[in-house]
């Protein structure tokens, strides 16, 4: 069994290359998740309260894949 050690910057550079390669192979155009600001622009609304109203009324689906700290 061989073990390969990489320094941290080299590891993250390799991960970035792998992600780019996979996105290219699968022809991924954009990420599945968008921010609230991006949703506001795409829906042509002017406030976060309107966005929240749409969520509350089930007019749009949403999920929180990770929490902001």
Query: What class would the helix/strand composition place it in?
Result: mainly alpha
Helix content: 40-55%
Overall residue-averaged pLDDT value: 87
Oligomer: single chain
| Overall radius of gyration | 19 Å
Per DSSP, what share of the residues sits in E-state strands of 2 or more residues? under 5%
- Strands, total number: 0
Low-confidence stretches: none
Largest sheet: none
Individual helix count = 3
Distance between the termini: 41 Å
H/E element sequence:
HHH
Which word captures the global form? Answer: elongated
Quick structural summary:
The protein has helices at residues 8-26, 36-43, 48-56. The chain has 69 residues and is an all-alpha fold.
Structure commentary:
By secondary structure, the protein is mainly α. The chain contains 3 helices and no strands. Helix content is 52%, strand content 0%.
Which labels suit this protein?
mainly alpha; elongated
How is the topology of this model organized?
Elements lengths: L7 H19 L9 H8 L4 H9 L13
